[in-house]
Amino acid sequence: DIQLTQSPSFLSASVGDRVTITCRASQIIASNLAWYQQKPGKAPQLLMFAASTLQSGVPSRFSGSGSGTEFTLTISSLQPEDFATYYCQQFNSYRITFGQGTRLEIK
Amino acid sequence: QVQLQESGPGLVKPSQTLSLTCTVSGGSISRGYYYWSWIRQPPGKGLEWIGYIYYSGTTYYHPSVESRVTISLDTSKNHFSLKLTSVSAADTAVYFCARGRREGGPPVFDFWGQGILVTVSS
């Protein structure tokens, strides 16, 4: 199976900060990567797919980049509602895998 | 707007079978293009894909549960189901159903149920 490793696992930041989360794949997955946001007690929400395509309704402060094995999710100016856990997911293989998550907390 | 809702028992005894149903509203599960999926999250941990079923009946399962899991569609009721046999405490998790949207091949998950906590305990 394709392994996904996110870094950092934990991130502390302030409202207005620019933050970047990285997801590395154990093998080449082209641009077949998605990002999700999950708040406590809630289901994950799709933010981005195909590495850099914003899901409908997601604010433009979220952006994604990368291809091959290294990908990033950037939030340009953190808002209070962005403090959550973020997961990457590969859809290069029919055996779906997720990263272990990055927890973003308020400093 | 598609909505998904999980239902089933919240407590299952070890060695028994976990059975959950996901009722879909706002769209037909027999329409092509979508994978109807189950994903779980052990308490305090990350997401684990369990498996999905395409409208044609084709299924894909995570290797770690493949010998114990069955996902099926009931188009007459517009719902799909998960059965996981021989459960243990390691199967305790919040179980989510989700719609997988094809993006040229395997899916991304664009609509999710709220999740249901299933505890395996005697």
Summarize the structure.
The complex is a heterodimer of chains A (107) and B (122). Chain A is mainly β. Chain A has strands at residues 4-7, 10-13, 19-25, 33-38, 45-49, 53-54, 62-67, 70-75, 85-90, 97-98, 102-106.
Question: What number is the mean pLDDT of chain B?
Answer: 95
Largest sheet of chain B: 7 strands, mixed
Instruction: Show unreliable segments of chain A.
Output: none
Number of strands of chain B: 11
Low-confidence stretches of chain B: none
Describe the structure in your own words.
- The complex is a heterodimer of chains A (107) and B (122).
- Chain A has 107 residues and is an all-beta fold.
- Chain A contains no helices and 11 strands.
- In chain A, the strands form 2 sheets. In chain A, strands 2, 4, 5, 6, 9, 10 and 11 form a 7-stranded mixed beta sheet that branches.
- By secondary structure, chain B is mostly beta strands.
- Chain B is built from no helices and 11 strands.
- Chain B has strands at 3-7, 11-12, 18-25, 34-41, 48-54, 59-61, 69-74, 79-84, 93-102, 107-112, 116-120.
- Chain B is globular.
- Classes of the chains: A mainly beta (107), B mainly beta (122).
- The A-B interface holds A 1, 32, 34, 36, 38, 42-46, 49-50, 55, 87, 89, 91-101 and B 46-49, 52, 60, 62-63, 96, 98, 103-110, 112-115.
What is the strand and helix layout of this fold?
The complex is a heterodimer of chains A (107) and B (122).
Chain A: E1 4-7, E2 10-13, E3 19-25, E4 33-38, E5 45-49, E6 53-54, E7 62-67, E8 70-75, E9 85-90, E10 97-98, E11 102-106
Parallel strand pairs in A: 2-11
Antiparallel strand pairs in A: 1-3, 3-8, 4-5, 4-9, 5-6, 7-8, 9-10, 9-11
Chain B: E1 3-7, E2 11-12, E3 18-25, E4 34-41, E5 48-54, E6 59-61, E7 69-74, E8 79-84, E9 93-102, E10 107-112, E11 116-120
Parallel strand pairs in B: 2-11
Antiparallel strand pairs in B: 1-3, 3-8, 4-5, 4-9, 5-6, 7-8, 9-10, 9-11
